[in-house]
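Support request from a user on the community tier.

User writes: "When I paste my C-alpha cells into the form, the page sometimes reloads and wipes my input. The last time it worked, I copied everything first. Here is what I submitted, just in case something in the input itself triggers the reload:"
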C-alpha cells in the first residue's frame, strides 16, 4: 500500500507536533516519483512558521537527480548530503536521511550511503512534521508528485546496515522498534501520530 500525492492538487500530509526535536534523528520512506525535473520533499521535521528543519527530498532540480538529506537553520543557512546515484521516474526507491549530530548528515538511496556532510547546523524550534511537502515560513511548496510508502522516523541514527535492511524490504517496525517514534505505512493499520492537516483530496489519518 502507498499514498498517492498529486502536486497539481497541492496534496500533502502534516502533523502539528514535532515527533523529535533534537539530534539524532533518522527519516526514511519508499517513494515513486513521476517527475524527475522538480524538487519534491518526501519527509520533513521543521518549524512550520520558520525555516529550521531536517528533510529528505527527491532532488530533481539537482544534476543527477539524487536523494538529498538537508539541515536548515533558523536563518536559512543549510547543508546537504546527496546520494551517490540518482532516481528515475516511475520506479520505486528507498530514501533515508540520517542526522546524527549538528555536524553530520548522510543521504541514502536504496541503502547506499552518500558522502557525509559535516558543516555544523543548528536545527531548533521544531513544531511539526510533513510528508509530501515543504512547510517553511508559513508557506507550503515542493509538493510530491507520486507515491510514498512506509514513512518512518527514529530518534536514533540508524546504521548503514539497518538502512540497507530497510531498503531490502524489512519493515520499519522491525528496525529498533523501541526507538521508532513515528511510522506511517499508509495501509490504515499502524499509525503512531494523527495528521491534523491534509491537502486537497487527502483525508485525515487517525490513530
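"...and here is what came back when it finally went through:"
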Amino acid at each position: 500500500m502507498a499514498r498517492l500525492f498529486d502536486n497539481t492538487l497541492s496534496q500533502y500530509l502534516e502533523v502539528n507536533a514535532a515527533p523529535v526535536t533534537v539530534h539524532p534523528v533518522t527519516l526514511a520512506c519508499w517513494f515513486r516519483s513521476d517527475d524527475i525535473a522538480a524538487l519534491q520533499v518526501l519527509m520533513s521535521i521543521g518549524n512550520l512558521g520558520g525555516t529550521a528543519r531536517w528533510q529528505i527530498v527527491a532532488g530533481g532540480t539537482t544534476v543527477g537527480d539524487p536523494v538529498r538529506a538537508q539541515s536548515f537553520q533558523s536563518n536559512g543557512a543549510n547543508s546537504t548530503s546527496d546520494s551517490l546515484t540518482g532516481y528515475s521516474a516511475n520506479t520505486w526507491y528507498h530514501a533515508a536521511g540520517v542526522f546524527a549530530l549538528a555536524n553530520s548528515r548522510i543521504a541514502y538511496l536504496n541503502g547506499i550511503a552518500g558522502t557525509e556532510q559535516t558543516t555544523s547546523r543548528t536545527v531548533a524550534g521544531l513544531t511539526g512534521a510533513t510528508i509530501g511537502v515543504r512547510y517553511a515560513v508559513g508557506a507550503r511548496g515542493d509538493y510530491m508528485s507520486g507515491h510514498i510508502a512506509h514513512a518512518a522516523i527514529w530518534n536514533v541514527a540508524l546504521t548503514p546496515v539497518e538502512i540497507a535492511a530497510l531498503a531490502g524490504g524489512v519493515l520499519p517496525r522491525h528496525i529498533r522498534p523501541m526507538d521508532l517514534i513515528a511510522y506511517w505505512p499508509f495501509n490504515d493499520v499502524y499509525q503512531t501520530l494523527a495528521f491534523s492537516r491534509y491537502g486537497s483530496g487527502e483525508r485525515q489519518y487517525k490513530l
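Agent notes: The reload is a front-end session timeout and is unrelated to the input. The helical segments are 160-167. The two ends are 17 Å apart (CA to CA). Escalated to web team.
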